[in-house]
Amino acid sequence: METESEPYVRLATLRQLHQVVADLNTARSLADTLQTVADGVVAGLGYELACVNLVRPDGDLVVAAFAGSAAAEALITGRVGSRESWERRLSMGEGWGELRFIPHTEGWVLIEDDVPQWHTEGPEPRFEDEWHPQDRLYAPMYASGGGRELLGVISVDRPRNGRRPGPWGQEALQMYASQAAIAISNARLRANMQRALVRLEREQQALRASEESFRQAFEYAPSGMAIAEMGGDQHGRLLRTNDALCRLLGRPASAMRRYSFADLVHPEDVGTLLRTSAEGGRAELRLGRRDGTYVWVSLRNSVVADTADGPRFLLTHVEDIEDRKRHELQLAHRASHDALTGLPNSAELRARLSARLCERPHAAYASDIESLDAAYDGDGGFGADGFAFGAIGGRPYDHHVHTIAPDDEMDDGTKGLAVLFCDLDGFKSINDRFGHQTGDAVLVEVARRLTTGVRDGDTVARLGGDEFVVLADGLGAADAADLAVRLRNAIILPIRVGGRGVRVGASFGIGWASCGMSVEEVLQSADQRMYVEKRSRAKVHRRAG
């Protein structure tokens, strides 16, 4: 039952509350606002202690302001409580609207958590609603809007009248927490706006200062620089080039403005240019000089804007890498080619052969060609239980045209990848009689004759010693046999070395590459057939003798 004096006390409190709420919006900074929130609880709501816990960007809450006790303020200000512990507290106790009251009978379980707290001493309560020294009362502050983002929590202690707040006191604290949340949001907004204005002014000053620096850096850069249009009908057209780029390509600046990099790039490098003509794109490609030659360059792109909201341009840095690229190509050629003959070496041969082979189809859906034929629907794909992967004989399978071996006994028109294994006969005796220098000259001439005797696109490789391998695609069984005869006839002709003529013979074994075989199996097959031929020819010679 309300006493006669309570309406006057309430009116006085309302006046004080009105004043402290008004003070919230006069603070000049976020720190001032937080301290005003804490001071307002003590000055206007009748509590002896108040603490403002503010949510940090990482989600934890830090003690940002304190009022009512200098000793407690020095003890806990700046300390952090985990979000997990705070969520636990805000789910315990009694809910008074938005407020959360945890009586001392439950609060003992919170003594060991990491939320900063202070303890006030005092006697045990003498009546039911008397405030206990270890009672806890929290007022969450939520941002306006439907998301209910938690901004912080006001915690209070020791009401001056010694009693737990009644309905009116609860409503006053809840209203104050709502106004405090608005004031904190506004203070943050003002602070962000002030920082943005300061940053904008600094950026404008820096922009004005950098424009001249950019102009000088662009014009006098030791390597090529270009600015091109980005977007629109003229996308990629060169608007501006520096002296270094003009000198590199042997073209005047006035002529460069008629081109884009797509006009100047080597035809084989157009795809590389298109894949990297964006922000942060990098490419190594060839650009055409005025004299018709090409130079290797490294392109590096970045986007620049004329103004904050103005058109965007592509800034391209062009570095001459001709010497490095030539050196890299030389190293790559040495690593993949035989130093004596200049032919692809064993590693390169295996790499080229491996590129034409694949593993056998998985037995679960294609144990052989016939099972694929059964699944094939005849319309460029497979039925519901089949798979669409690439091509076997023109049908989808694994995105790969399978290599198939022709039949050696019956020429049915099948074309395959022939592997001709060549071993020189009598080469060791040349080394023994005339020395390794003569032997090396013989190997070089044999390599030349083999290369001359094959088609463009065929591979002639030196496997090692006096062994060579020829890869010839698109041949039938008879074609491969004819090729072996032509190459043998070319090799057995006399070779002039140091004023003398020497002869070597040649034995050829013809193998066929077929998907499902390994590289070693293919080479071993051709090697075995070569030895069969060599033994057969030796028998013929013995009979003739």
Question: What do you see in this structure?
Answer:
By secondary structure, this protein is α+β, with helices and mostly antiparallel strands. It contains 17 helices and 20 strands. It has helices spanning 6-24, 30-44, 70-76, 83-89, 104-107, 167-219, 243-249, 253-256, 261-264, 270-276, 322-336, 346-354, 369-375, 427-434, 436-453, 477-491, 519-544; strands at 47-55, 61-67, 80-81, 94-96, 99-102, 136-142, 150-159, 224-229, 238-241, 282-288, 294-305, 312-320, 390-392, 395-398, 416-425, 459-464, 467-475, 495-497, 500-502, 505-513. It has a seven-stranded antiparallel beta sheet with strand order 3-2-1-7-6-5-4. The protein starts with 5 loop residues before the first helix and ends with a helix. The relative contact order is 0.06. The model is unreliable at 1-5 and 361-398 (pLDDT under 50).
Provide the fold topology:
Elements: H1 6-24, H2 30-44, E1 47-55, E2 61-67, H3 70-76, E3 80-81, H4 83-89, E4 94-96, E5 99-102, H5 104-107, E6 136-142, E7 150-159, H6 167-219, E8 224-229, E9 238-241, H7 243-249, H8 253-256, H9 261-264, H10 270-276, E10 282-288, E11 294-305, E12 312-320, H11 322-336, H12 346-354, H13 369-375, E13 390-392, E14 395-398, E15 416-425, H14 427-434, H15 436-453, E16 459-464, E17 467-475, H16 477-491, E18 495-497, E19 500-502, E20 505-513, H17 519-544
Antiparallel strand pairs: 1-2, 1-7, 2-3, 4-5, 5-6, 6-7, 8-9, 8-12, 10-11, 11-12, 13-14, 15-17, 15-20, 16-17, 18-19
